[in-house]
């Protein structure tokens, strides 16, 4: 059996190797390493795929979030509401810009920000909500957009984990995750569902003026060549990464289908278990399973992880320390408050290997190992 990994990027590459190698060579020959034609071609193609007017590539997903908040002109002391149960980048950039991250709890089913908790956290200083579409399943965007409109807030979607996911609104309109708020942000980190071979990221928006502002911020605050209107950043997607992403974007729907197939096999295997809660999928969404994350009940999650490791089955805890318990935010916002759902889930969740190259025998071994631990 091929060794099991959380994500098997090598075997995925092998399947597209001729195309990728040729495209990479072409970039080397052209020497257009920065802002080569493929960067804009990719941006256009991703815009078409997502159904959004503007895609602005940048250097990574963390930069995308930072650039979004800079482009919206938030000022030090402004408050931004975000879930605590997420990767650190989401709240880190809020703090980096001297804004105040306001951590709220999540919905126990979706693992995403709880709209009711958002409403309770709004103050006169609140400027924005940053929902995170965790593990590949969107937050409740119908409710979030309603709350944002009611209170005049911006919505920046952290879509690093849910690219390609479909969401149908209560009015019956189906759109891609990340295209509901004012700005969507994503990451092309190699292990993400649409990953490149290094770092990369992008912002998307339908707002022409905001798109222009984002482009300016991402390019040294430059309005015309060598005229800099604001302090910005330097954040670009390399041409080499753009050619990889153009090829992989063609495969994204089949990559999602492959992940969903693995998820369905796990769902079926654990459906009857009293010790396991399988991931929830809202009926109006297509979960893209960036992670397949179980909740373990009545058994020790850490013991399960160790048991699996001994059977050469990797499993990860995303994330072992939630934002509101991270040292970095001490003195910047309320920390160590009790967020009951987040705190409980932190001790129960475990993510299993899921990727586009899983063999049936690998899947069987993972499932059998979990079952033998539980029995
Ligand atoms: C990966 C990720 C990011 C950051 O992306 P980078 O490209 O690594 O900077 C931000 N938010 C979430 C939820 C992520 O999963």
TrEMBL record:
GO terms for molecular function: transaminase activity. Its EC number is 2.6.1.-. InterPro entries: DegT/StrS_aminotransferase, PyrdxlP-dep_Trfase, PyrdxlP-dep_Trfase_major, PyrdxlP-dep_Trfase_small. Keywords: Aminotransferase, Pyridoxal phosphate, Transferase. It comes from Chitinophaga pollutisoli. Belongs to the DegT/DnrJ/EryC1 family. This is DegT/DnrJ/EryC1/StrS family aminotransferase. The keyword RNA-binding does not apply.
């Amino acid at each position: 059996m091929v060794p099991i990994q959380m994500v098997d990027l090598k075997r995925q590459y092998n399947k597209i190797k001729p195309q990728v190698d040729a495209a990479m060579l072409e970039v080397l020959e052209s020497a257009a390493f920065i802002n080569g034609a493929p960067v804009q071609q990719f941006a256009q193609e991703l815009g078409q795929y997502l159904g959004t007017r503007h895609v602005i590539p940048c250097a990574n997903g963390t930069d995308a979030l930072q650039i979004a908040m800079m482009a919206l002109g938030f000022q030090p002391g402004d408050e931004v509401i975000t879930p605590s149960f997420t990767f650190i980048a989401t709240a880190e950039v809020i703090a980096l810009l001297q804004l105040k991250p306001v951590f709220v709890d999540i919905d126990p089913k979706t693992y995403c920000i709880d709209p009711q908790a958002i409403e309770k956290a709004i103050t006169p200083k609140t400027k924005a909500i940053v929902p995170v579409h965790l593990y590949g399943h969107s937050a409740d965007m119908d409710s979030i957009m309603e709350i944002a409109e009611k209170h005049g807030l911006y919505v920046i979607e952290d879509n690093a984990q849910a690219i390609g996911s479909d969401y149908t609104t209560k009015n019956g309109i189906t759109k891609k995750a990340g295209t509901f708020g004012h700005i969507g942000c994503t990451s092309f980190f190699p292990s993400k569902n649409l990953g490149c071979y290094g770092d990369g990221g992008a912002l998307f928006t339908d707002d022409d003026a905001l798109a222009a502002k984002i482009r300016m911020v991402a390019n040294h605050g430059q309005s015309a060549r060598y005229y800099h209107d604001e302090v910005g950043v330097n954040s670009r997607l390399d041409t080499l990464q753009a050619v990889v992403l153009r090829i992989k974007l063609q495969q994204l729907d089949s990559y999602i289908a492959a992940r969903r197939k693995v998820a369905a096999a796990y769902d079926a295997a654990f459906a009857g278990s009293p010790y396991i809660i399988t991931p929830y999928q809202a009926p109006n969404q297509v979960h893209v399973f960036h992670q397949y994350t179980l909740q373990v009940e009545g058994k020790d999650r850490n013991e399960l992880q160790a048991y699996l490791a001994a059977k050469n089955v990797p499993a990860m805890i995303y994330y072992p320390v939630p934002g509101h318990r991270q040292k970095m935010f001490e003195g910047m916002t309320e920390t160590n408050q009790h967020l009951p759902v987040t705190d409980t889930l932190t001790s129960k969740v475990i993510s299993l290997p899921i990727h586009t190259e899983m063999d049936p025998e690998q899947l069987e071994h993972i499932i059998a190992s979990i079952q033998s631990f539980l029995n």
